[in-house]
Amino acid sequence: MNNASELRQKSVTELNEELKNKLQEQFNLRMQKGSGQLAGSNLLLEVRRDIARIKTVLTQVQKEGSTA
Q1: What average pLDDT values come out for the chain (68 residues) when binned by 10 residues?
Q2: For the chain, what are the domain ranges?
Q3: 3-state secondary structure at position 48
Q4: Cα–Cα distance between 19 and 60 in angstroms, integer?
Q5: 10: closest CA among 53, 49, 57?
């Protein structure tokens, strides 16, 4: 997936869109896990970490904007 340096190169709009997609993917994976259809449980962990990465970069960008 994306590392933080790749995410920092994206605009805030792109980051928000990617966050929205990852949250939807997380929801779908949780539903699959609940119904017993999820084969690789590590997918859920990866998506959760991706969401955290995106939120961290968004917060950093917002702080840079307010201090600059």
Answers
A1: 84 96 97 88 93 96 82
A2: 4-67
A3: helix
A4: 15
A5: 57
Residues in the chain, overall count? 68
Tokens of 17: 């869109």
Residue 57's Cβ-count burial label (10 Å; 0-12, 13-18, 19+) is buried
The reported pTM is 0.88
The one-letter code for the residue type at 12 is V
Name the strand (E) or helix (H) holding 2: none
Those residues with Cβ within 8 angstroms of residue 16's Cβ, 6 or more apart along the chain or in another chain: 58
- CATH number at 4-67: 1.10.287.310
